[in-house]
Write a structure and sequence with these properties.
The structure is a single chain. The chain is 48% helix and 5% strand. By secondary structure, it is mainly α. Helix 3 packs antiparallel against helix 5.
């Protein structure tokens, strides 16, 4: 890793880091090795931390951090502890349970390589984080809660979904999607016994009936977009060629698509200038990124706690029943994924923490395959006993 050339962006950020911190620059300039530099940075951070005995006790684990002493820690104490932790654990590798890989960590070794040889695997994000860390450590960045007015100002930058103009846009989207579904039913490309038209209905009568269907959750499950081509048609061909290329790649790789019509109606197709980008958060949930496409197939778990062996606690220390029905990371929260139709959401978020379950086939959107079997009632009783017998659980998702 010490042979990887630093990028121009990273180099400029590294220069900004040392320019802002004369003490750090002096240490790096006059140290004879990376270990020498790390020792001097350690001494610097330790001298700062020693000014607060509570912070020292928390760092040394002789006192736990809780509500009674939280207010006794200064903002730069947190930064000092983070620097000390970086140095103490520098050079170690840690398992990345999500991809069954190990991750090497030694921030100040990477800083030394970058400063002395212009070589470092560190990305611009790493340097931005280090800049903010040392601003916090040296007191150049102070902790402050935003005022109510500031929060309101931030919120007002984004149009509300209750804005009458946005409500009108979403109504137009709904009507467009319904007309597309009606056309598919009329042509025979889509058919469903529950959602079908009686003979001799006029176009307006069909539309009025479709408006009633819109209120039925089963309608949205039945007519959800399940592939990029359908998604593009339901969005009036508004997705760019670049986006479609990523979605086609995702589809070929086996990443499922399932976006119900209501959710698609929240995505703008023809937005007035003041509302361009107002649907970006929702759009990011529906459209996959190239990074996800590249990762799919190599996702062992979203979190290490989701990897469970029968009869053994997960890495968080929780023993959960077999069957992939219960996931647990925290003392008072558990996730229940039932058998039957409950194993399928009404849509798939691109950031779904169960994406590895879709990858492995334990989750999918073949709804008929998820009809509950005869054993589900017995299995459910067993799962409920697990919750009943654990006094710590307060929340079941």
């Amino acid at each position: 890793m010490e042979k990887i050339s630093i990028t121009k962006h990273s180099y400029l950020l590294m220069q900004q880091l040392v320019t802002e911190n004369e003490t750090l620059l002096h240490i790096l300039t006059h140290s004879t090795s990376a270990e020498h530099a790390k020792q001097q940075i350690w001494d610097w951070a330790w001298n700062v931390l020693q000014q607060n005995s509570v912070a020292v006790a928390i760092y040394e684990r002789s006192k736990s951090l809780d509500a009674s002493n939280l207010h006794e820690l200064r903002w730069h104490d947190y930064a000092a502890m983070r620097i000390l932790e970086y140095i103490q654990h520098g050079g170690q590798t840690f398992p990345n349970g999500a991809k069954e890989q190990t991750v090497w960590s030694d921030p100040f070794q990477m800083l030394w390589w970058a400063f002395t040889s212009r070589r470092s695997p560190a990305t611009p994000d790493f340097w931005l984080d280090m800049i903010e860390l040392f601003r916090q450590f040296t007191g150049k960045a102070l902790y402050s809660l935003p005022s109510q007015d500031q929060v309101n100002t931030w919120a007002e930058r984004h149009p509300s979904g209750l804005n009458p103009d946005i409500v009108a846009i979403r109504t137009q989207n709904r009507d467009r999607i319904l007309r597309w579904i009606i056309a598919q039913l009329e042509s025979g490309k889509l058919h469903d016994r529950r959602f079908s038209f009686e003979p001799d209905l006029s176009a307006s009568q069909k539309f009025e009936k479709a408006l009633i269907w819109w209120q039925d959750s089963l309608f949205h499950l039945r007519f959800a977009a399940r592939d990029p081509k359908t998604l593009q048609e339901m969005l009036d061909h508004s997705l760019s060629p670049e986006t479609m290329k990523i979605l086609e790649h995702a589809y070929c790789k086996g990443i499922p698509f399932f976006v119900n019509p209501y959710y698609l109606s929240l995505l703008h197709v023809n937005s007035p200038g003041q509302f361009v980008g107002a649907d970006q958060v929702i759009r990011d949930y529906v459209l996959y990124s190239q990074a996800l496409v590249d990762a799919f197939g190599n996702i062992a778990a979203w979190e290490k706690e989701d990897k469970v062996e029968a009869g053994k606690p997960n890495v968080a220390g929780w023993l959960v029943p077999e069957g992939n029905n219960i996931h647990r990371r925290y003392p008072d929260v558990a996730i229940l994924i039932p058998d039957g139709l409950g194993r399928t959401c009404a849509g798939l978020c691109s950031c779904c923490q169960r994406m590895y379950d879709f990858q492995q086939g334990s989750l999918n959107f073949h709804l008929e395959q998820h009809r509950p079997g005869q054993t589900w009632s017995q299995k459910l009783q067993m799962l409920m006993q697990y919750f009943e017998n654990d006094s710590q659980i307060r929340d079941i998702l």
